[in-house]
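Teaching soon. Invent one.


***
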Amino acid sequence: MEFTAQMIAGLIGGTVVGDPEAKVNDFAKIDEGKPGSITFLYDEKYEQYIYQTECNIVLVNQNFEPKQEIKATLIKVPDARVAVAKLLQIYESMKPKREGISDLAFIDPTAKIGEKCYIGPFVAIAEGVEIGEGCVLHPHVTIGRNAKVGANTEIYSNAVIYHDCKVGNRCVLHAGCVIGADGFGFQPTEKGYEKIPQIGIAIIEDDVEIGANSCVDRAVMGATIVHSGVKIDNLVQIGHNDEIGSHTVMSAQVGIAGSTKVGEWCMFGGQVGIADHATIANRVMAGAQAGIPNSVKKEGAAIQGTPAIEGRNFWKSSAIFKNLPDMWADMNQMKKEIKMLREELRMKSEE
């Protein structure tokens, strides 16, 4: 597919500066530009590359003013990052979707498969399953009995949806993702740990994306719920009976223990850990490796550290922490000097 600068500007609401007939058929990073490609500049620290790039077209913010001559045609937009994301979405939507069912797939006769689906080799679909129209199931996907998958959802290889669980419309489940495995529930007894049956389900609502090898456990009773628009990175653990609010995002290796409620539009950095039975308010931002042992009630709070505290206090504390060895030595020296002064004062008082 080939596009001109004028066509692209029309798609993303931009203004062309340069040759409106400049053509591209590929994307490239600005520091790896090549002829026939489009790139973008959103951060001034990369500005040096715009004067060297071989790309034909560069998306830039409206306030960008070049300091020297640029060979490429520019398209000015309100936000270059937003514009390139939109353009990538358009590009992706234009790719032809695969359809058809492989002869090597197993589909139980009681399953219902929507129109225009693709079901790859060695996919296993159990009894009572419902698959919406336009879904793409890559090789080795497994769908357990009575599970439901909405329309236009894509599930990559080796992902598993356990029995009775529900996945909404336009979701993306990446390779190795597991929806509805048993939650970690065991009762200690004199003879060891006795398993607590997990008889609930997991529900994934519309427009959710879940990364490779991430897990959403089924509930003990009721449902673990991931609400609409949530984006989950690779290697994330969502415990049983959790409820994740709409449009919350989580980076890799986040772990949320059971029966925790997370609000809407929260942002969790890598390796954030949240204890069980906590409630997290809307729009909370937790920095990487934050450990959250209790509920966070303040909406929009920015927290960091373990145990997590307000972000500014954490960085102030961190600055002090690295100076603790010197502070400890100074304190010991002061204690010695104070002891000496007290001894001198005692001796003078006895004279």
